[in-house]
Write a structure and sequence with these properties.
four-stranded antiparallel β-sheet, 666 residues, five-stranded mixed β-sheet, 2% helix
């Protein structure tokens, strides 16, 4: 038995319960102790919330259509289906009354109600306004009659106004303002004394707006590609863009609770934040449960998260705080690449540009951060001295020089054939992997004057590369690992050694690293392979290790190898004996981990949608067996405010944890 102690990066202890619902749940609203869940395949589901820790399904109603959204106003419940909007009274939740339909003529996407008017984003039919003043009266009359069904049970309301100038997919109402998200734009309307919308501005945007939400004096606008922009309102003037991707995730829901903001970020979980006066979000805590978080409902100290097929997750908000040692940087947008050199770091954004700065050597917080604009997204970094090289895809390679104040300044561009993605440095050579165009060797001996000197042949789907002791190792999709010798004095290339995958030439190499004469690689077959490359001309596979999921990257740090597994976490492997690797456990982290590095006694975990996380390295603990059924584990000092997990693992070939225990020192 081996025991590993790690910090709880997913904050799993905050999830205190699950309500399985079956089907595919999309949205939740709550009123008078009852939660209403829109389920695409199960219709409407009602949950009793009399005991928030133990909610129970009290009834289900199949209405013959896929329910993808639900909205509650006063005692009226609005169900959005592919056919339109159905209204029911919830004065008696156990006896729902489906009586009135709003005829939208196409699938509605969002609804808000103000007084007697319902505003509907009706897809291709644009914005529709309905007068629902008779709805409450109709339900009152039905409650007094014993006739079933009542003659008004199939009543259909036509819109009193249709603004069909574009496909409408989202909307929100705040005070006397109506905001509507369309395909390629969003519009702001002023509501007159009769509630009729008058357009005051139209703002272009790159894609369809699937969510628009007013929070204080700011507008959150999320498009179908998951790009979130925040705008500052200016009365009757068009709003001003203040930030792009402040949390780096695909925003699906947002709830305002006093001075706090709760955000559902599709695959990044629930985020608790405080908004500053200039519109920035200060993250106070987060949790990543199983499944995508699609909708949030807050009731006192409890949050209820709709997570698709995973049902409803119950979160104790008092536990939704960041660990004292884990620092999550997510306000810099959706990120692509992370690179560290000593205590300096470089972090690129999907929308273009990159941040540079340094880690504080005590708190590991970022400091002296600057931002450099680029024409397109930076896919990878390399550095030598005060020079930074960025791989820019079809744009080739761009060189920057770090100034005395820490700001990067562009000094050169080199257009290269192919798509420049991965890089490595060997002496005065910059190695650039350009997929089907091969591997470029660039002379960088003279600052500001990079020069292409040679291109090496390579398969189209090379994935990553690393240089160790003058040998270049290139991971390919289907041709194993290519090894190039870069040590010859006359020419950068002497030999090419191909190492096809044994017994299966179709298993892609998804990540590799080299250390102390051994090559460690993870493959599409879900395992770790160890290759003896002490003589790179005669590589030999010496062992393998099964791992859960499909690992897509690996980082070697001394006697430990960390493999990243999407939506699972980080597998920790003991490689003190490279020929006999042994799994120690999996640190749960249900995010898309893009990179792992170490710095001092910290582990840097770079995620695609939730930024960079800094945490203590997982630590193996000693185990003493006291008898045949008991064991004793001596814990190190655990700091108050941090969350920990003990991982128990037995047997190097097992693909699962034998058990975990959560620790919450107070």
């Amino acid at each position: 038995m081996r025991v590993l102690l790690s910090e709880d990066l997913s904050n799993r202890h905050a999830v205190v319960g699950t309500v399985p619902l079956g089907g595919n749940a999309y949205r939740i609203v709550m009123g008078d102790g009852v939660a209403y869940v829109a389920n695409a395949t199960q219709g409407l589901q009602l949950l009793s919330m009399s005991d928030p820790e133990l909610p129970a399904v009290i009834s289900r109603y199949y209405i013959g259509a896929r329910v993808h959204d639900v909205y509650l106003h006063d005692k009226l419940l609005f169900l959005l289906t592919q056919d339109g909007v159905s209204i029911k009274s919830v004065k008696n939740p156990t006896k729902p009354q489906f009586n009135i339909e709003l005829k939208t003529f196409s699938q509605p996407h969002a609804i808000r109600v103000v007084g007697d008017l319902a505003y509907v984003a009706a897809g291709k039919n644009g914005l529709m306004v309905f007068d629902i003043s008779m709805a409450a009266e109709s339900f009152e009359q039905q409650a007094k009659t014993e006739i079933s069904p009542a003659p008004w049970a199939d009543f259909i309301l036509e819109p009193i106004l249709t603004l069909g100038s574009g496909s409408a997919y989202s909307l929100d109402v705040a005070e006397d303002r109506l905001y509507v998200g369309y395909r390629g734009k969003f519009r702001g309307y002023r509501l007159d004394s009769e509630g009729m919308p008058e357009e005051i501005y139209s703002m272009p945007i790159s894609a369809s707006v699937k969510l628009i939400k007013r929070v204080h004096s700011f507008l959150f606008v999320n498009d179908k590609h998951g790009e979130l922009n925040v705008y500052r309102e200016r009365g009757l003037l068009p709003p001003i863009l203040t930030s792009r991707n402040p949390l780096g995730g695909d925003l699906l829901d947002i709830i305002l609770d006093g001075n706090l903001v709760y955000l559902a970020l599709a695959n990044s979980g629930l985020v608790k934040a405080k908004m500053t006066e200039n519109g920035e979000l200060e993250v106070l805590g987060s949790v990543k449960p199983d499944g995508p978080v699609r909708s949030i409902c807050i009731d006192g100290n409890w949050a209820f998260l709709v997570c698709g097929a995973e049902g409803v997750k119950i979160v104790d908000l008092s536990r939704l705080d960041n660990s004292a040692s884990s620092v999550a940087w997510s306000k810099w947008g959706k990120q692509i690449a992370f690179f560290r050199k000593d205590h300096s770091f470089y972090l690129s954004r999907l929308s273009g540009g990159f941040f540079s700065g340094e880690f504080d050597q005590q708190t590991y917080s970022p400091r002296n951060v600057t931002f450099a604009e680029t024409d397109s997204a930076v896919l990878s970094f390399e550095a030598t001295g005060a020079r930074i090289f960025t791989a820019m895809g079809n744009e080739g390679v761009v060189e920057f020089a770090m100034q005395a104040d820490g700001a990067p300044v562009e000094t050169a561009r080199l257009k290269l054939p192919g798509f420049s993605k991965y890089m490595a440095i060997f002496k005065k050579l910059l190695v650039v992997s350009a997929q089907k165009e091969g591997i470029h060797l660039v002379d960088i001996s003279e600052p500001g004057r990079p020069r292409l000197v040679k291109t090496l042949p390579s398969p189209e789907k090379d994935r990553s590369c690393v240089v160790e002791n003058g040998f270049l190792y290139v991971a390919t999709r289907y041709d194993g690992v290519l090894i190039y010798d870069l040590n010859l004095p006359d020419t950068p290339l002497v030999n090419l050694v191909e190492m096809p995958w044994p017994q299966s030439g179709l298993s892609p190499i998804l990540g590799l690293d080299v250390a102390t004469g051994y090559l460690y690689m993870v493959t599409g077959q879900g395992g770790l392979k160890v290759v003896d490359v002490r003589n790179p001309y005669q590589p030999e596979i010496v062992n393998s290790l099964s791992l859960p999921g499909m690992p897509n990257g690996i980082y070697v740090d001394g006697n430990r190898a960390y493999t990243r597994i999407p939506r699972v976490g980080i597998a920790v492997v003991d490689i003190s004996n490279p020929q006999k690797p042994e799994a120690l456990g999996v640190v749960p982290l249900r995010l898309s981990v893009r990179g792992i590095e170490s710095l001092d006694e910290k582990l840097l975990v770079f995620t695609r949608n939730f930024g960079l996380m800094v945490t203590d390295k997982p630590q193996e603990l000693g185990v003493e067996y006291t008898d045949a059924e008991s064991l004793r584990i001596e814990l190190p000092a655990l700091e108050t405010g941090r969350r920990y997990t003990l991982h128990f693992y037995q047997g190097q070939q097992q693909e699962r944890l034998d058990g975990v225990i959560s620790l919450d020192p107070r």
